[in-house]
Amino acid sequence: MNKIIFLLTGFFIFLGANVIPLSPLTAILKDKNIKEAIVTINPRDTKEIPLIYQITDKIIKEYGGVPVFGLYEDFNNKIDIEYKTNNEIKKDTYYLQTKALPSKKIDIDNMKFDNRFYFVIDEDSAFIIDNLGNMRWFANIDKTKFIQKPKMFILNNMSFDIINGKIFMLNMQDSAKLLNIDDNLFKINNDDITLIDKKFKILDKWKIPFEVDIFSNISSLYYGNDDLFITYKDSIIKLDKKSKIKWIFGGDKNEFELVDATGSKIVCDNCDFSKVENVQEIRFLNNKDIIYIIVFDNNINAKAIIYKLDEKLLTNEILWEYKIKDEILRGNAIYRDNFHTIFIDYKDINKNLHILEFVWGENLPTINIKIENALKAIPFDISDFLRR
Questions:
Q1: What distances in angstroms separate CA 200 from CA 88, 172, 178, 194, 385, one per listed residue?
Q2: What pLDDT does residue 184 have?
Q3: Among 137, 146, 134, which Cα is nearest to 165's?
Q4: pLDDT along the chain (388 residues), means of 10
Q5: What is the distance between the alpha carbons of residues 166 and 56, in angstroms, rounded to a whole number?
Q6: Number of neighbours of residue 123 by Cβ within 10 angstroms
Q7: pLDDT digits (tens, 9 = 90+) for 108-139
Q8: Spatial CA neighbour of 306 closest among 234, 262, 317
Q9: 2-97 maps to which CATH number?
Q10: Is 84 exposed, middle or buried (0-12, 13-18, 19+ CB in 10 A)?
Q11: Residue 22, CA atoms < 13 Å, CB-side half-sphere
């Protein structure tokens, strides 16, 4: 069945569909009888691929229908919905005409990856682009609304309701700092670090076994296998579940010797760990003593680095390094385990935001995007968001 939805004064007029005014590239197809829905946003041309995602019955109940995400702006979008109703499989096709959105200057050098989405924060808005630079979600930031408990997608102390287009500032007390790393939420006080979920339920807690200034000296945290990795000043500190320091990497108390691939000790004349951010532990070897740590060095000569650490031998090998040519204000590096890639975003001194993504082990980015006057980016997956 084909269902055409017309746009009039900013709203879709159709008995069974509501477009979200605050998020003009999303809609909700109102039908509580739909079960096990699969949504397909068809591409505009042959260079693009369909966006396909599943909607659980829980999400359909929560939104009162099927959320539609990833529409193209200024386009008559074709959306296929395959679903169950009364134990019968059906398929409907909708056409949704959208309006143009505020333009953003986006330059793309490479676009070899398929089906990538990047969430971007601007001065007064947030938006999601695909790997071709098409805007697929948009919302204005209203900084007057505050909430105590985050419930949705979180970035830069803001909570984003992707479907409804609502954006909230997180209301944290002055004595605490909130970090959101790799879907983990950490609340940092002067005496302890607490791992919490998005309903503020406490999942784990560590005592800080060293003197710390929370607002300037802890720049990132990572949690894995009951251990906590802390970037503190110019060091990476690993704490076990009982808050005992297991080792220190970098800084004046560094316990690791730098070696090459053969295990031979080497001397590094430029091993400055200051302003390191977004530590991530990567475990995909059978050897339990070998871990990878990815960091972004925010010095003047910025770079992303993957360190291969042998915890038993206390040795460190620089496995991969990418030097940033631009003079930067701030940067970040993330390992994407679902794609086995490295994601980098950084803001240069001219206020341009750069998005890079590398196939593991390669020295040149497969994705290279520059966005004028943007602040921050992070990978986004609508399936992960709807799985919450």
A1: 40, 11, 11, 10, 18
A2: 66
A3: 137
A4: 40 43 84 87 90 92 90 94 87 90 86 83 90 91 68 75 82 54 71 81 88 75 86 89 94 91 83 74 80 87 92 94 91 89 94 94 92 92 82
A5: 22
A6: 9
A7: 886 677 789 999 998 888 999 998 899 999 98
A8: 317
A9: 2.60.40.3100
A10: middle
A11: 14
Q: Residue with structure tokens 């091993």? A: 271
Among the listed residues 386, 356, 378, 361, the one whose alpha carbon sits nearest the alpha carbon of residue 113: 356
Q: How many CB atoms lie within 10 A of CB 242?
A: 9
Residue closest to 103 by CA, chosen among 79, 131, 134: 134
Contact by Cβ (8 Å): 19, 26: yes
What does the domain layout of the chain look like in residue ranges? 2-97, 106-140+183-194+201-386
Q: Considering the chain, what is the average pLDDT of its residues?
A: 83
8 Å CB contact between 235 and 198: no
Q: Which tokens belong to 277?
A: 């951010």
Please list the residues that pair with 334 across neighbouring strands: 343
Q: Which residues contact 177 (CB under 8 A, 6 or more apart)?
A: 187, 188, 214, 215, 218
User: For residues 239 and 207, is the Cβ–Cβ distance under 8 A?
Assistant: no
Q: How far apart are CA 134 and CA 369, in angstroms?
A: 12
| Amino acid letter, residue 221 | L
Tell me if 126 sits within 8 A of 156, measured CB to CB: no
Per-residue pLDDT at 24: 87
Q: How far apart are the first and last CA of the chain?
A: 31
- Tell me phi and psi for residue 384, to 5 degrees: -65, -40
